[in-house]
Specification:
- The chain has a single domain, classed as Rossmann fold (3-Layer(aba) Sandwich), CATH 3.40.50.1820.
- The protein contains nine helices and eight strands.
- It has an eight-stranded mixed beta sheet, with helices on both faces.
- The radius of gyration is 16 Å and the shape is globular.
Length: 245
């Protein structure tokens, strides 16, 4: 059980959107930024557990993207959320961390890859169930692997907090920018992911030119479900990657 401290704070983006963060500040000199995917928040049970797992060895900042949870604004499905991540990274930099790591899930992973490709301040990335191209996401919600996992994680308050922007927005495709990513990156996928099929993550891994590694969980589903179903192995995989020189 996590026994450290956690503070809830509000950051302001460059386009004046409030971004809510959970800040696990325990005097470590390295920080992990946890970026949830669509329809997930920093206060979701899965992401509290993920944050507390990393907080055993690192300071952690988990946050709500715009249009989610306690943050303001409307969600744009990877069009403007890079601005949210920038606000969190700027906050981390102001706190003088020796190293900054991004851990993204699903669309949060797509944003982490795009941000990492544009920033010189990211030391490592872990991208879980990351889409190569938003327009090619399968999202087969009728499949048992999808709806059964969604039902298990259902949280009414979280569901009611989601505010999407209905206007289509221009997006950067992770596959078009992945070659610019310099930070060592661990790519993780689930073999039976019904939302972002494993080929997305594998294609990004193949095209990346940075130091990289790839793990596909046999029988695994989507994003945070990989942590929930394979917690010990998933945790060790991520911790080992961040510790590796």
């Amino acid at each position: 059980m996590y026994r450290g401290t956690m503070k809830e704070l509000i950051l302001k983006t460059k386009d004046k959107v409030d971004i809510a963060i959970n800040y696990y500040a325990n005097a470590h000199d390295e920080v992990v930024i946890v970026a949830p995917g669509w329809c997930m928040t920093k206060d979701s049970d899965a992401f509290v557990r993920i944050s507390e797992m990393f907080a055993k060895q690192y300071d952690v900042i988990s946050f709500d993207f715009r249009g989610h949870g306690k943050s303001g604004g409307l969600y744009t499905f990877m069009a403007h959320e890079i601005i949210d991540m920038d606000a969190v990274v700027r906050f981390a930099r102001k706190n003088n961390y020796k190293k900054i790591y991004l851990v993204g899930f699903s669309l949060g992973a797509g944003i982490a890859v795009i941000y990492g490709a544009k920033s010189i301040f990211i030391d490592k990335v872990i991208a879980i169930s990351v889409p190569a191209d938003f327009d090619k996401i399968e999202n087969q919600m009728w499949k048992k692997e999808a709806w059964s996992e969604t039902f298990k994680k259902f949280e009414l308050g979280r569901f009611l907090s989601i505010r999407p922007n209905p206007v289509p927005q221009r997006k950067i495709k992770p596959i078009d920018i992945i070659e610019k990513l310099k930070a060592p990156t661990l790519f993780i996928s689930g073999e039976k992911d019904p939302t972002v099929h494993a080929w997305h993550t594998e294609e990004l891994y193949k095209k990346a030119k940075c130091k990289k590694a790839y793990k596909e969980y046999k029988g695994g589903c989507h994003a945070e479900d990989l942590f929930l179903h394979f917690e010990d192995d998933f945790s060790k995989l991520c911790m080992d990657w961040l510790k590796e020189e």
